[in-house]
Specification:
single chain; alpha+beta; 8-stranded mixed β-sheet; 4 helices; GNAT family N-acetyltransferase; acyltransferase
Amino acid sequence: MTASHRIVAAPCWAPLLAALHEESFVHPGDEAWSAKAFAGLLEAPACFAVVAETVDGPAGLALFRVAAGEAEVLTIGVRPADRSAGIGAGLLGAGLAECARRGAHEVLLEVAAGNAAAQSLYRRRGFVEVGRRRRYYRDGSDALVLSLGLTGGVSTPA
């Protein structure tokens, strides 16, 4: 499935981002990020989002923050109906390119230790594990801290 990617940084996108996030992540008992939370993040000049759009409409989102030469992947998610079609890889690639354009030299993220699909996506892109946060998530699971170096817009292992 082909998707186009749009870089967005205005709070007016917050309702769409919140809806995509909820559809991509929320299980019974989980708390979705609200439109207000997304709007607050997008009001900061350091944050931006990438929205993947297919012929069927919005398919996924990624949210990044860039400051002082370092970037962070805050969240990335794809609607269940659009998974396994390269949408996540496209979102990550578009976001990393924008991070490099904004002056980031390194990108960090946290991923659940049990999320093999996400770990595979990040490792294929060159992210390496640099730490572990014990019992980081609400369910008590660990988070792996991954890092990727960026040089001239090209990802390099950290």
